[in-house]
Amino acid sequence: MFKNLITYRIGEGWQTDAAQLAEQLAKEPFLACAPTQPLAVGWAPPRGIEHAPLVEVVDGHWLIKLKREQRLLPSSVVQERIEELAEHIETTTGRKPGKKAKKDLKEQATHELLPRAFTKTSATQVWIAPEQRLLFVDAGSSSRADEVITLLIQASAGLSLQLVQTAESPAACMAAWLLDGVTPEGFNIERECELKGSDEQKPVVRYARHPLDIDEVRAHLTSGKMPTRLALSWNERVAFTLTEGFAIKKISFLDLAFEGRPEASGDEAFDADLALATGELGRLIPALIAGLGGEHDFAATGAAPAPAALPANVPEEALSESPPW
Which of 92, 229, 234, 245 registers the highest number of CB atoms within 10 A of its CB? Predict the structure, then answer.
């Protein structure tokens, strides 16, 4: 159901219910690209069924979906057509097109080629937990999440969102967990991580399918490298990767999470998958935030979050870089 999650806190002023949100999203529905349109973006039914609701509600959790279609037009193809057009002009007039004419030729070539271009369709899911006033974007990059959030705020009056930031730096906490092997209750370190140095060359060390409770990893940490990604599991139910910016990636549900789940298909399977994902992750994420010192309240403190305390053998210069947010 979800592969990556970026977490936002919903501002207190937003009082929309699911039906109102559906009406707001219906004003900007997804419509496929017209022949000369390079990109189309809009809201679509999460179930993928035409005319289904734009907001799905399961166990008090809402799911919405932003769909995008983009025409793929390689720059090399456009350039080849520009050269053909320019050659024709030179042959017929005896003059080479100048800079302004080349710009017009680019627009002409693009307009000609777009109707023949292949299209690529993708979708980004948004999970809203209204009672907890949390919103999650299933995006693998901050730029894609920013696109979704911008369009959602434009669609829904009064909505304000703030990236959830923890009181302690995820990188510093991950370093401490790797150094002493002690993680927050319910969490276990798995076999993948990425460590990055803070000097000018920014050396990177990656471990995959490899034990991390070894002297080599601790030596990298004490020499100044800090974790940017760390694979974890929670209560033997969910596996994921935590990043230095508190993004949750590579989410997968383990066998224990499926115990006792009845067989389902069609719409029932969709509801069951959403209930499973929101139920498990709805407990995991608060536990993870608590393990990172709780959520930082900027409004109350008026200050940026302080870095987590590290064991004495982690050099202070390892924390000198600007935080990832």
Answer: 234
Q: How many whole angstroms separate alpha carbon 273 and alpha carbon 279?
A: 10
SS3 128: strand
Distance, CA of 112 to CA of 34 (rounded, Å): 13
- pLDDT tens across 209-232, in order? 999 999 999 999 999 999 999 999
Q: Are 125 and 2 in contact (CB under 8 A)?
A: yes
Strand partners, 7: 136
The H or E element spanning position 80 is helix 75-93
At 228, phi and psi to the nearest 5?
Answer: -105, -20
Identify the three-state secondary structure at position 163.
strand
H helix or E strand, kind and range, residue 129 = strand 118-129
Q: How far are the Cα atoms of 68, 108, 151 from residue 122, in angstroms, in the given order?
A: 6, 28, 16
Q: What DSSP designation does 290 have?
A: H
Query: Among 174, 307, 304, 303, which residue's Cα sits nearest to residue 247?
Result: 174
